[in-house]
Amino acid sequence: MPFFEVNKLEKRYKDFTLSVSFTMEEGDFLTIMGPSGSGKSTLLSLIAGIEAPDSGTIMLGGRDITKERIQDRGIAMVFQDFSLFPSMNAERNIRFGMKEKDGKKQKELAEKLLELVGLSGYGKRSVSSLSGGEAQRVALARAIAAEPRMILFDEPLSALDPPMRKHLRSVIRSIHDSLGLTVIYVTHDTEEAFAISDSILVMNGGRSAAMKSAEELYRRPCDLFTAFFTGEGTAIPAHLIYENMEGSLFFRPEDATISEEALDPDAYPMHIILNDAEVVSADFAGAHYMLGLEYQGYPLLVETSVKPRKARVSVMILRQSVLNLE
């Protein structure tokens, strides 16, 4: 039996229905991604007990928690807006909700947790004096202090600047690894999800579109929605290359290269050759250029280290990297 299981969970609204099933093992780090309105926050609310499902079950550690009260589920939650108590200092916020009732032991544990999140000596700081990154680390320490069986993160880093987001996602992953926490993490940031997760659940229209590792999602997406949601890419009609083939051929920008000369397809059997593509744009991205091309009316994206000098180029796409998707 899996450590955590969401089985045929449904929540029906007037114009939206959430219907999802998935499992996790103890110690897993699962990230949930999806466009706005896909059901990410609704799913998290159902797991936490903030909302009640219309049908289905939620099992945690072999126990049915579907109808249990929020405080009885053994689940902690870290929010985007920190949700710290402004009248309490950092230490008191962390001590709130601790299972340990002895005041001296609470204080010692709070100090250890502050050290764990990189805030040694911050215990007496008022919440209002903390930066966004510091406040979120206090919120994380408070969640751990409750000794939950699972921690839910609802876009915890989205209000922070990019350097702080990168730093804190490393802190969260490091703490997860050191304590063996079971985590469900919601984000809209693909880079963040790829960097931090063991596996990723992609949602679309209230349903699970895919659940795989980051590398599998990027390299072997199951459909065009997942392919484009997890990174840049190109999709062209399959019949443009292979007669009578249905669907689309999808490839990533790094799986194609360009030549400023016309190419003989017979000389490159390992590649798909598209001659006479028009250069529409060339965006400098630091380590490379992202080229926007047009071939027979279809847009292409190609990554290249050098900006082309000519207005029309040939494109070489590695056949083994091309996927036939719907």
**Unreliable stretches:** none
Helix content: 10-25%
Shape designation: elongated
Q: How many individual β-strands?
A: 18
State which percent range the strand residues make up: 25-35%
Order of helices and strands: EEEHEEEHHHEHEHEEHHEEEEEEEE
Mean pLDDT: 93
The number of helical runs is 8
Could you give a quick summary of the protein structure above?
The protein has helices spanning 40-48, 90-95, 103-116, 132-145, 162-179, 190-196, 214-219, 224-229, and strands at residues 4-12, 17-24, 29-33, 55-60, 63-64, 75-78, 150-154, 183-186, 199-204, 207-212, 234-237, 248-251, 256-259, 271-284, 289-295, 298-304, 312-318, 323-325. The protein has 326 residues and is an alpha+beta fold.
How does this structure look, described?
- With 326 residues, the chain is of the alpha+beta class.
- It has eight helices and 18 strands.
- It has helices at residues 40-48, 90-95, 103-116, 132-145, 162-179, 190-196, 214-219, 224-229; strands at residues 4-12, 17-24, 29-33, 55-60, 63-64, 75-78, 150-154, 183-186, 199-204, 207-212, 234-237, 248-251, 256-259, 271-284, 289-295, 298-304, 312-318, 323-325.
- The strands form four sheets. Strands 6-7-8-3-9-10 form a six-stranded mixed beta sheet, sandwiched between helices.
- A hairpin with a 4-residue loop joins strand 1 (4-12) and strand 2 (17-24).
- The longest helix has 18 residues, at 162-179.
- The protein is elongated.
- The two termini are 34 Å apart.
